[in-house]
Structure formats: C-alpha cells, structure tokens
Amino acid sequence: MANTKSAEKRIKQADKRRERNRYHRSRMRTAVKRLRTLIAEGDAQGARETLTGTLGLIDATAQKGVIHRNAAARTKSRLTVAVSKLA
C-alpha cells in the first residue's frame, strides 16, 4: 500500500500505462496472428492485403515503446519474407 501522495500517483500512472500497453500489444498480436493464419492457409492475395496494415500496426506499437524497435523490425522482416514466399 502506498504511504505517500506521490506513491499513490505513481501507482495510478503505472496502471494507466499497463492498460495502454496491453491494449496496443494485444492489437498487434491479433493482427500478426491473423496474417500468420492467412499465410498457413496459402492465401497469397489476402496475406498481401493484410500485410500493410499489420506492418503499420507493428511500427506504431514500437514507436509507442510497447515493444523494442529491433523486435518490431525482426517481426516485420519475417512476415514479409513469409508473404513473399507465397507468391
């Protein structure tokens, strides 16, 4: 339990940040999962259409500091390679 006003404020701020980060991370993971499903099904057209939105979402998540920029680059690279292999 917080003993000071500043500690209480810090707890509130941390909770807000945690929720915001969870929202963005969850959104990104869902988009990546959707794209990987399309890749697994062999739907080249659908995967190509979904790829742009997914890459944008990954970039936005990294820009907000929810995931590391190198992790974002690695994920984007692997997804792009997987989609290009379908064609």
SSE order, one letter for each helix or strand: HHH
CATH class equals: Mainly Alpha
Number of DSSP strand runs = 0
Helix content: over 70%
Q: For the residues shown, what is the average pLDDT? A: 96
- Predict the CATH topology: Methane Monooxygenase Hydroxylase, Chain G, domain 1
Task: Return the CATH architecture.
Answer: Up-down Bundle
Q: Using only CA atoms, what is the Rg?
A: 17 Å
CATH superfamily grouping: Ribosomal protein S20
Backbone shape: elongated
Q: How many strands, what sense, and barrel or not for the largest sheet? A: none
Head-to-tail CA distance between termini: 57 Å
How many independent structural domains?
Answer: 1
Estimate the strand proportion.
Answer: under 5%
Structural class: mainly alpha
Alpha plus pi helix count: 3
Q: Which segments are poorly predicted (pLDDT under 50) over 5 or more consecutive residues? A: none
Short description:
With 87 residues, the protein is mostly helical.
Describe the structure.
With 87 residues, the chain is an all-alpha fold. It has one domain (5-86): Up-down Bundle (Methane Monooxygenase Hydroxylase, Chain G, domain 1), CATH 1.20.58. 86% of the residues lie in helices and 0% in strands. The protein contains three helices and no strands. The chain has helices at 5-41, 44-63, 69-86. Helix 1 (5-41) packs antiparallel against helix 2 (44-63) and helix 2 (44-63) packs antiparallel against helix 3. The protein is elongated. The N and C termini lie far apart (57 Å). 16% of the residues are buried. The model has no long low-confidence stretch (mean pLDDT 96).
